Amino acid sequence: MGRILVIPLVLYLLDRGSPFDCYLATLVFVLAAITDFLDGYLARKRNLVSVLGKFLDPLADKLIVTATLVWLVTMGRVPAWLVIILIGREITITALRGIAMTEGLVIAAGEGGKSKTALQMVGLVCLILGYPYHVDLIVVDFGVVDLVMVGRALIYCSLVFSIVSAFQYGKFFVDAVEAKAKRAPSG
What is the C-alpha separation between 93 and 112, in angstroms, rounded? Predict the structure, then answer.
């Protein structure tokens, strides 16, 4: 619930748009991502998995990512067509999982989906920060790095993983349905 409740704060800070506000928006977004990780870890470790948690956890993830992506379109940091494809993929996979669940099947997250999520989250952090910054690591001075360009590149990479993993989920779904049909007694 906390991740859902911070969405307006992230969008408000992005809307204000100063470098400091974008920094604060990034901080809130990253804290939400960390709480997602901790929530999942603790639920599994303590065996506190609930039906409500199974529903709210992916919903919160999708809402904060989708809301942020849509807001970034209005700021000119990411193209609308890209966001439409990413949102369409999420709706499709969610629908497939829902149908599979009604059939007693589970479609687990594959490596492509996990890679998509990782690239998307890091890309979103760069896009939320949204300004050029001087990056000087201990051994390498990268000079000024435009984080919008870095973020877009990562989101484009996540798009590739999104499309590939969507086909993988589709194949998993078809295979699971066919396997279930073969196990069913013929009538």
Answer: 13
User: What CATH code is carried by the domain that includes residue 111?
Assistant: 1.20.120.1760
- Contact, 168 vs 110, CB < 8 A? yes
Q: Which H or E run contains 132? A: strand 132-136
Strand partners, 69: none
Q: How far is CA 172 from CA 97, 116, 151, in A?
A: 10, 17, 30
State whether residue 13 is helix, strand or coil.
helix
Closest CA to 124 of 97, 159, 89, 165: 159
Total number of domains in the chain: 1
Q: CA triplet 92, 95, 99: central angle to 5 degrees?
A: 140
Residue 126: Cβ within 10 Å count? 22
- Enter the pTM of the model: 0.84
* Residue 62: both structure tokens together: 């999708």
Q: What mean pLDDT is predicted for residues 23-37?
A: 91
- Which residues in 98-116 are b (16+ Cβ under 10 Å) and which e? eebeeeebebeebebbebb
CA torsion angle 166 167 168 169 (round to 10): 50
Q: Which domain holds residue 139?
A: 2-183
Q: What is the arithmetic mean of pLDDT over 128-152?
A: 88
Between the alpha carbon of residue 85 and those of residues 80, 92, 167, the distances in Å are: 9, 10, 14
